[in-house]
Amino acid sequence: MKRYAILCWALLTVAALLPGQTEEYLPMAVWYGGGKARAPMLERGARQKKEIWRKDVKQIKALGFNTLRAWIDWASGEPEEKRYNFETLDVLLELAEEEGLKLFLQVYMDSAPRWVGEKYPDSLFVSAGGEVIQPESSPGYCRDHAGVRAADNAFYSALAERAKRSKAFLGWDLWSEPHVINWANPTWITRPEFCFCAHTKARFRGWLKKKYGTLDALNEAWYRRFESWEQVEPGRLSTILSYTDYIDWKAFIADKLGEDLRDRYEAVKSVAPRTIVTSHAAGVGLFASPHHWEGQSDDWTMAKQVDFYGTSFYPKHSAFVDRDVPWRAALLDFTRSFGFDGGRKGFYIGELQGGFGTIALNVSPTVTPADLRIWTWSALSRGAKGINYYAWYPMSSGYESGGFGLNRLDGTITERAKEAGAIAKVVDRNQKLFLAARPPRAEVAIVYNPLSHFVGGRQRAAVYGGPQGEVAGIERDSWLGMHRALFPRNVPLDYVHLANLTTDKLKQYKLVLFPYPLMLPEASAAVLRAYVEGGGTLVAEARLGWNNERGYAADRIPGLGLWEVMGCREIAIQTGEKGRTVLYWSGTEIPGMKTGDALPARWFEETLEPLGPNSRVVATFADGSAAAVMSSFGKGKTLMLGSYLSAAYFTGPSEPAERFYGGLLRWAGVEPTVAVQGGALEIRTLDAGRERLVFVFNHTKEPAVATVSLRMEQGSYTATDLNTERPVALQREERAVRFPVRLEPDGVQVLRLERQ
């Protein structure tokens, strides 16, 4: 038996070293590029500064971090074609290896070397108005130029050849906060939009040929009269006719960014296949808009291209964009949703704010050790597989100077850094558990539909409310509002991307919520129909399926055949006074709702007409017209709402609306998995085979004393507090285990439950 065990161990060891298999490791990293230069800048003379930098690296290790997050920019790394300067990387890899750390490398291609532009003078970015962008430190050159793309890929491959020699090298972030154009704002252009150079337009024509096949099909879709493909241009105008051309242009941008990321992935993986390859968004799609002038990526598309995709996470950035506890929870649940979708293994926090933020004179509130405790464990409780604190030192230059550092610029170690390092120690000594942990299977889904931004074409521009490209609009408010209403109930929920809906994917959900559903593809409508027919519960808001994916209006609303599923049709529509209205509940089916309950709503008042014997009015507007219809279809049931309750809840939460959303869970048969007695606590869980991680958060400024019950399979369990490494007493109930909680303000308890 002993010989058999040794053989198994040997085989597993060999398997772990097989080429092509990505290394498994959870980096608890801090951004450090050598000295005090801010990313993407580097200090010169790295070799001479090695021993000075060693002091920082030793301190990073001593606090508990297991990884350095270094960086390199293309201009510094390849100042002349094929002449590479990787001195800083070499020194940092040596230090990491000598001090027992891993190294993760951030690559900045937007700071491109001058020789690229001199060799390819036709590779400059061009805005919609024909303005040509001469790069300064950014944004580099357009990757749609074949020469630039080849040079770009060659630099990544050269980096991989150098980095893979070191045992300390762990992996990459190939692209920080991807857009078409990064880190440069042409402030002299009133409405910039990129890129309209000849090479991007040629690539767009190739994308259109693949989509439409023939020029006749394109002309039919766009209502145009092109006689050759060379005449085809991206649309620039807002017209009264079809805006299918604009939708295609923005869909192309999202696809193109995904393809560009995949190109870079293959460039490093072909050379260093075992390395972990990642990228991360600036602001996930929940807060961004496809209208963004820089060229906005799609998180689900990007996540398919790399081992792990993730996000920057700046809860106290220099501008305020509703970053309270539910806001942060929604961001992380959204990131978790694309990180684990399709069998993927999780997500990374590419940048986690380490200190107060600043943009020029706009300074954020103070970042405290308690903030880092809550933020870090919140990300880990959703299944994050990498945390990267930004940064060891505050920014040393630029309009962010003095901001975002874990420590002070004079080298003083702060309590924030100590708190982050202490968490890193806990995670590092439980690496296998955190790597194996997966979110529980959710029974509730919120449909994320970026197409909703396109109703009206270019005319539906977003209002930007923050430095990371965040938008403030009814789309965002709707996706956030439903989440905010359900957040206190500790119910696991997923965001599902409308473009990725399948019948099999929706089967797991007892309740699907569809906020602000004005535009959707015909294929998605068929999936929703099958979901309800098979026994699902669908709740949708006003003007469901008004437009299809080409921007063409439905002949009746709900559109695309969904009027039959929802058991009603729209017979009148108007905008509520000052964009506000109220639904007065009259139904009896939703638990907790009483006749006359007032549900605030925003924007439209859509009058609905029930269709068939299974449909009934369950709410009215002030004038008595039908505002909500409940129906059944096949084995499932539906609720059609004639306005936007979710957006109204986000901007003005109300007690009746909170009861309404809680009642929807019970109406759909969603069973709670968590119960809290005696306090308001956030509870998150992750599953890892016979083990479960339980995260308990006290977000209040008062001590919390409560009892938590978790629904668990039959059996005997033990619990250990990972922070203290002490056992926690569990009490077995019929279908659950129960344990006491005592938490200080902003406290977090992390338990490891093991089935005996």
Folded structure, characterized:
There is one protein chain. This protein has 756 residues and is α/β, with parallel strands linked by helices. It folds into 3 domains: 398 residues, TIM Barrel (Alpha-Beta Barrel), CATH 3.20.20.80; 225 residues, Class I glutamine amidotransferase (GATase) domain (Rossmann fold), CATH 3.40.50; 82 residues, Immunoglobulin-like (Sandwich), CATH 2.60.40. It is 30% helix and 24% strand. The protein has 20 helices and 30 strands. Strands 14-13-15-16-21-20-19-17-18 form a 9-stranded mixed β-sheet, sandwiched between helices. An 8-stranded parallel β-barrel has the order 1-2-3-6-7-8-9-12, surrounded by 6 helices. β4 and β5 form a beta hairpin. α6 runs parallel beside α9. The chain is globular. The two termini are 24 Å apart. The relative contact order is 0.08. The N terminus is likely disordered.
Please sum up the structure shown.
Helices cover 30% and strands 24% of the residues. It is of the alpha/beta class.
Report strand %. Answer: 15-25%
Q: What spatial order of strands do you see in the largest sheet? A: 14-13-15-16-21-20-19-17-18
- Count of DSSP helices? 20
How many structural domains?
3
Instruction: Give me the Rg, rounded.
Output: 27 Å
Low-confidence stretches: 1-19
**Could you give the count of β-strands?**
30
First-to-last CA distance: 24 Å
The first-level CATH class of the largest domain is given as Alpha Beta
- Could you give me the name of the CATH homologous superfamily of the largest domain? Glycosidases
The whole-number mean of residue pLDDT values reads: 94
Task: Please state the structural category.
Answer: alpha/beta
Q: Which fold name corresponds to the CATH topology of the largest domain?
A: TIM Barrel
